Amino acid sequence: MRWTLLFKYLSWSAGLLVLPPLLILSGTNAWVERYSQPWLYQDPLQVPHNRVGLVLGTGPTTVRGRPNPYFVGRIQAAAQLYQAGKVDYLLVSGDNSSPYYDEPSAMREALIALGVPKERIYRDYAGFRTLDSVVRARGVFGEQRFTIVSQRFHNQRAVYIARHRGLEAIGYNAPDPPEGFHSNTRFREPLARVQMLLDLLLNKQPRYLGAPIRIGIDPIQ
Predict the structure, then answer these.
(1) To the nearest whole percent, how much of the chain has pLDDT over 70?
(2) pLDDT, tens digit, for every residue of 119-137?
(3) Which residue among 23, 69, 132, 173 sits deepest, i.e. has the most Cβ atoms within 10 Å of its Cβ?
(4) pLDDT per position as a tens digit, 136-183
(5) Apex 65 CA angle, 58 and 196, nearest 5
(6) CA 197/CA 129 separation, integer angstroms
(7) What is the DSSP letter of 45?
(8) Which helix (H) or strand (E) covers residue 44, if one does?
């Protein structure tokens, strides 16, 4: 009887410890989805025109060396927007923290292969995080209004960041990976959204800003 009571007490205590984090995760997730919904688009014909499309970075291959469907989907969606006349320029923003890893250049080459003129593609080499990419689009590249290109779950967070920072951003949803593709990207998203709220609360800034670059005026890097 004593062990039964002890077990019930421990179970009840564990539940109290687990419940608040779960409520925070689920509540944050629901709020971000609801808030961003009016500014997300699935049909390229319905996307309002913006001068610049911001393509959020990811690697072209998986850790096993296979094509990354997140990368493929974003590149196809960005090229589709450009070819539909919904954006005039594309800003590809990603991680280039190592000489051996260059997301922006990989995205640029993939877009050129799909017919996007190279003079219409600008690279942001310091898009280390979603917040960095979004804030630098304004702080470095001078864009107040732009279309973010990524998968839906990622666009929800990116649009939330942009709107919170006073930017008139919308999102165009790239295709999700096919069923059966296993990745921890989606599973990390609830935690990333909680971190995002903390960053916004603390007015977190990008790791780097730098000299202004005017898209369509300054030469391509």
Answers:
(1) 85
(2) 999 999 999 999 999 999 9
(3) 132
(4) 999 999 999 999 999 999 999 999 999 999 999 999 999 998 876 766
(5) 25
(6) 14
(7) G
(8) none
Between 31 and 167, whose confidence is greater? 167
- 139: tokens are 């702080």
Distance of CA 184 to the CA centre of its chain: 15
Closest-CA residue to 146 (of 70, 39, 72, 37): 39
Tokens of 147: 């279309």
Q: What are the φ and ψ backbone dihedral angles of 121, each rounded to 5 degrees?
A: -120, 120
β-pairing, 121-124 vs 40-41, is unpaired
